[in-house]
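Hey, I was hoping to borrow your eyes for a little while. No rush at all, and the record is pasted right below.
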Amino acid sequence: MNWKYSRREFPIEVVNIDEDGVHIVCKNRLAPGYWWIIDTGASTSVIDTNCSDHFEIVFESTTQAAVGVLENQVETKKGNAQIIDIEGHLFENIDCVVIPLNHVNEIYQTQADIKICGIIGCDLLVDNKAVIDLAKLKIRLKNIR
């Protein structure tokens, strides 16, 4: 996974989702109007099936069942997003799963008036030694190549 720009931090926002508590989000500038959820509890980054046309994804030939952010168990597609954008900062070659996030989007659109394109998981955060600073509403990355 490579980071394309040398800037080491980007802004985040905190949104209150009544039923699910407080969530951290940030904008996806390559897909205007869409946001990422920053989820330290997600082991893998996720792209919403409904937004996958905004990304160049190379899919693996196998699919697998997934449970977690989903209401029910569904088939997922595993792949590699060639580029993803977090607040204007581009990451290359991000392993991800592609699943429908319809129920997640329903909640976020209803309660925060934002559309979700996916979830930035611990894989990307750990690889880049991310520090989430809620006082300054920023994420700093320490492992930039």
Remarks:
- The longest helix spans residues 102-112.
